[in-house]
């Protein structure tokens, strides 16, 4: 799927490649301009290298009626090539969900022999213009579920419960599926209640792993329940991983994998973040019932790291955030940078993560004076929202926090920070992210913005848009977490 142009705006828009001018010192603009261009080039290369069609072409194929799957080489432990003979099955059932659901579905359909009987569903942010008659398409909601999110989940459960031992189910799972494909375990809970539940989780400041613990226990299709719906069928999962490699059960809240979290974990999180009073009454009643249903999986075996934990669905990781970082490293090295990767701030609050990475960059500059440096960081940061937010997201919030630190600690230095989502979206804005440098605050002030006020109001997008420093990719049809790129010349 080609990336779509995006012309939506969140403020005064200038050129996407604005020429950088240092206040009162235009002769020093060239190094910053070059760093801006290099950061964009590194991000674009990483996205292209991890495109779904390319990954499928490299790692999934059919040899006659034999499906051949190769695991991502960057996900330990190394797994040999897997071969599955499809000729013995009467039907192939595809269940695709998440931000990469459409290109994953299209890629798999292009590989499977036409003589095989294929049916399925695809729940993605938008329906494709060209649709295969064998697949039912749904435009689910993100970051909040919608009616199609519920319809897709209901249809999938109905198809899976009818599947026989002559059916092979191929789950195509990618990030974003937690809301694009959703259905409460309690049928009395409405869509409006479910939306309020997700809103409370997003604003809580909880990490994505903690949020997923609550989502899994709330849902009829998460935490392994989608796999257990097909009791007789042979099942396998192909995943695009947008979480740390040791937590692959968190992708789309783990619909086909055993869940290591417990009801006790849920109750501890509800108490820690004061969530019960923020939930609508129906959701509050669900979580406070004396016998809250447990998710599938042998919890003791999962805690021991056992592969036999009660849900027998084999998993194949096709591409992950590690692949995204690897491609970024490759491009940065080709551009002459000495590259360091540091994921130590994954799931940290955005301001703490900004401080950590800026400190790390300062230390690298001290260790390698005069060298071109690139500090890469993958994963996600968290934002705890205590008011009605403006327009932006965690990546633009992080970039603006870095801009403040640059202005305070590294004024006039040739450094930039790019932070963006591999899915092409950042919060409630039309941008994937933004680029910041030591001149960001001064340039914003010259245009009438108070950058610290924008930071406090969670309203970074209008500022970055006015500066021409947003990244507008449009939906990428992928989801491999976020990428942060800090460059120093």
Biggest beta-sheet profile: 6 strands, parallel
Count of DSSP-assigned helices: 17
- End-to-end separation in angstroms reads 35 Å
Question: What is the CATH architecture descriptor of the largest domain?
Answer: 3-Layer(aba) Sandwich
CATH superfamily of the largest domain: Glycerate kinase, MOFRL-like N-terminal domain
Radius of gyration (CA) equals: 23 Å
Q: Give the fraction of residues assigned to helices.
A: 25-40%
What general form does the structure show?
A: globular
Total tally of structural domains: 2
Compute the number of strand runs: 15
Mean pLDDT: 89
Under CATH, the topology of the largest domain can be stated as Rossmann fold
Highest CATH level, the class of the largest domain = Alpha Beta
Strand order of the largest sheet: 6-5-4-7-8-9
What structural class do the secondary elements suggest?
A: alpha/beta
Low-confidence stretches: 1-9, 12-19, 307-312
Strand content: 15-25%
Question: Any overview of this molecule?
Answer:
Strand 10 (338-341), helix 13 (350-367) and strand 11 (373-379) form a beta-alpha-beta unit. The strands form three sheets. The chain has a six-stranded parallel sheet, with helices on both faces. A six-stranded mixed sheet has the order 10-11-15-12-13-14, with helices on both faces. A three-stranded antiparallel sheet has the order 1-2-3. The chain has helices at 29-49, 52-59, 101-111, 147-162, 177-180, 191-202, 208-218, 225-228, 263-272, 281-288, 299-304, 321-334, 350-367, 394-409, 440-446, 451-456, 460-467, and strands at 60-63, 66-69, 82-85, 91-97, 118-124, 135-139, 167-174, 234-241, 315-320, 338-341, 373-379, 415-421, 433-436, 470-471, 482-488. It has two domains: 26-49 and 322-488, 3-Layer(aba) Sandwich (glycerate kinase, domain 1); 53-320, Rossmann fold (3-Layer(aba) Sandwich), CATH 3.40.50.10180. It is an alpha/beta fold and 489 residues long. Helix 7 (208-218) packs across helix 9 (263-272).
């Amino acid at each position: 799927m080609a990336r779509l142009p995006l012309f939506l705006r969140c403020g005064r828009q200038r050129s996407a490649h604005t020429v950088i001018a240092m206040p009162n010192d235009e002769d020093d603009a060239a190094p910053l301009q070059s760093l801006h261009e290099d950061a964009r080039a590194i991000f674009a290369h990483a996205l292209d290298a991890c495109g779904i069609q390319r990954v499928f072409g490299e790692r999934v194929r059919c040899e006659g009626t034999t499906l051949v799957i190769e695991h991502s080489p960057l996900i330990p432990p190394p797994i040999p090539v897997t071969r599955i003979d499809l000729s013995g099955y009467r039907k192939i059932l595809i269940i695709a969900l998440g931000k990469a659901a459409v290109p994953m579905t299209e890629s798999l359909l292009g590989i499977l022999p036409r003589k095989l009987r294929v049916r399925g569903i695809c729940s993605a942010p938008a329906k494709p213009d060209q649709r295969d008659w064998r697949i039912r398409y749904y435009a689910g909601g993100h970051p909040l579920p919608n009616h199609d999110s519920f319809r897709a989940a209901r249809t999938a459960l109905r198809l899976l419960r009818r599947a026989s031992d002559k059916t092979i189910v191929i789950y195509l799972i990618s990030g974003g599926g937690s809301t694009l494909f959703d259905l409460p375990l309690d049928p009395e809970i409405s869509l409006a209640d479910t939306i309020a539940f997700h809103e409370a989780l997003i604003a809580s400041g909880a990490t994505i792993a903690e949020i997923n613990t609550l989502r899994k226990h709330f849902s009829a299709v998460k935490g392994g329940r989608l796999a257990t719906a097909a009791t007789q069928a042979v099942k396998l999962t192909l995943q695009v991983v947008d979480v740390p490699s040791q937590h692959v059960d968190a992708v789309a809240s783990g619909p086909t994998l055993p869940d290591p979290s417990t009801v006790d974990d849920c109750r501890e999180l509800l108490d820690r973040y004061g969530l019960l009073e923020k939930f609508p009454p129906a959701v509050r009643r669900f979580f406070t019932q004396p016998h809250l249903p447990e998710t599938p999986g042998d919890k003791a075996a999962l805690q021991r790291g056992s592969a036999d934990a009660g849900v027998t669905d084999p998993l194949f990781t096709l591409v992950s955030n590690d692949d995204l970082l690897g491609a970024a490293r490759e491009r940065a090295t080709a551009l002459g940078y000495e590259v360091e990767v540091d994921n130590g701030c994954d799931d940290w609050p955005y301001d703490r993560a900004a401080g950590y990475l800026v400190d790390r960059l300062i230390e690298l500059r001290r260790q390698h004076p005069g060298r071109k440096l690139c500090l890469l960081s993958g994963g996600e940061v968290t934002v705890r929202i205590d008011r009605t937010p403006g327009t932006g997201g965690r990546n633009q919030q992080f970039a603006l926090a870095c801009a403040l630190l640059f202005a305070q600690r590294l004024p006039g230095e040739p450094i930039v920070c790019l932070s963006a989502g591999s899915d092409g979206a950042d919060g409630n804005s039309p941008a994937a992210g933004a680029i910041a440098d030591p001149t960001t605050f001064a340039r914003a002030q010259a245009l009438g913005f108070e950058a610290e006020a924008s930071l406090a109001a969670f309203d970074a997008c209008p500022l970055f848009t006015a500066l021409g420093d947003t990244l507008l990719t449009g939906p990428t049809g992928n989801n491999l977490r976020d990428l942060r790129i800090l460059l120093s010349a």
